[in-house]
Amino acid sequence: MEKQVPHIKTALPGPEAKKVLALDHQFVSPSYTRDYPLVARRGQGMFVEDVDGNSFLDFSAGIAVVSTGHCHPEVVKAIQRQAENLIHLSGTDFYYPQIAQLAEKVAAITPGNFAKRVYFGNSGTEAMEAALKLARYHTRRPGFIGFFGSFHGRTFGALSITASKAVQRNRFGPLLSGVAHAPYPNPYRCAAGHKPGECECDPLEFIEKILFKTSVPPEEVAAIVVEPIQGEGGYIIPPSSFLPRLRELADRHGILLIFDEVQCGMGRTGKMWACQHDGVVPDILISAKGIASGLPLSVTVARADIMDWPPGAHASTFGGNPVACAAAFETIRLLEEKYIDNAARVGEYILKRISNWPAKHRIVGHVRGRGLMIGIELVKSQETREPFPEARHTILERAFEQGLLILGCGESTVRLMPPLIVEEQHSDIALDILERCISEAEEKL
Ligand code: PLP
């Protein structure tokens, strides 16, 4: 694993990978979406080695999770130290220092100069469940407003707000009642299908002038739930006026504002939180994924006066597990020390390098990003902006064959979300491979 370049030495999948795939296909839930047959054996820094000894450069970070890279030595040490002393006790029934200390740290690093409290879960969807239940409990209002294209998780509450792909909801209804969705502002692509340059849609006017006047009395809305940058929906960065206007609208109607920073938080955008780019403070913020470099942990952080539920109202056996807390402490330390700045610097470097791709490649419609949350949207025609999912499929597969791990988001966007330790030299290797794959797709399709 010392190699600093991807190295593919077998046909893919290799012989050992094929054995695992056969077992997996027989016994593992078929609901998982795997774009290509990577069968990993170990990871170190920016690289993942598969069970046949092939080495891949990782620009997906376990879906934005291994923020400090694979098996960062300091994170591993912190996990080992904690595992030798106390692996589990359950923070719902007992006290231990790690959970209280991490809550104090999380309260300090989240936006808002007010007293906060922190609820611990194990995943993004659990953090969202807690946020939704808390919003209902505190406001005594039943309703929620989410946004089309958003992803918040797959348990029933979170799924009710999620409006990303129909397959995620198909046959799971009825979901939570009292949930409405508004269009998410997409500077490149109008949700109502208006032609580029002709769109005057305003999601906030939609909420105020249509939802509130027709089907959703604002007095019944507990919270508006939003991703400051839409993740699974396509790495969409809304105009900088969006969050401030949403804050103002929510305040005017006594509605809580919940920011889902599960994917865009923990330094990925070059600041600890994506909402800090626009200076907007939510009432409740959730995070997970990159918070503990790969151990399962999530947080739901709320103003202390909002988190007013009594003992027994909500809890989880594993949430805030001491080993996950230790990993989170070390992760946050490393992010604050150097990796958030690195994300800003290398993200800018990558964006600069790919900014001329729409001019060079007819199937690249748009490139966009903030820090290391970068999207490259593929289109059949730059004029019509028709999505091109087939091209994305080809590009992801070809990149894998050439030793680069990337994933898609939205209908036809390639997303780059490397660990925050990524350096310019890794980016050059990844972008050379990716550009080659784009050219190949252009020729083939
Ligand atoms: N919220 C956002 C913005 C996400 O991107 C995700 C997962 O991709 C979730 C919530 C759900 O997180 P988890 O898969 O950990 O439940």
Describe the structure using short key phrases.
2 domains, 7-stranded mixed sheet, binds pyridoxal-5'-phosphate, Aspartate Aminotransferase, domain 2, 4-stranded mixed sheet, alpha/beta, 12 helices, Aspartate Aminotransferase, domain 1, 445 residues
Q: How would you sum up this structure, described in words?
A:
This protein folds into two domains: 15-71 and 338-444, Aspartate Aminotransferase, domain 1 (Alpha-Beta Complex), CATH 3.90.1150.10; 76-335, 3-Layer(aba) Sandwich (Aspartate Aminotransferase, domain 2), CATH 3.40.640. Helices cover 36% and strands 16% of the residues. It has 445 residues and is α/β, with parallel strands linked by helices. The mean pLDDT is 97. Strand 1 (40-44) and strand 2 (47-50) form a beta hairpin. It has a seven-stranded mixed beta sheet with strand order 4-10-9-8-7-5-6, with helices on both faces. Helix 3 packs antiparallel against helix 9 and helix 11 crosses helix 12. The protein has helices spanning 15-27, 61-64, 73-85, 97-109, 124-139, 156-161, 203-215, 242-252, 322-354, 357-360, 389-401, 424-444; strands at 40-44, 47-50, 55-58, 116-121, 143-147, 179-182, 221-226, 256-260, 284-287, 298-303, 364-370, 373-378, 404-405, 407-409, 413-416. The site of pyridoxal-5'-phosphate (PLP) has 14 residues, from helix 5.
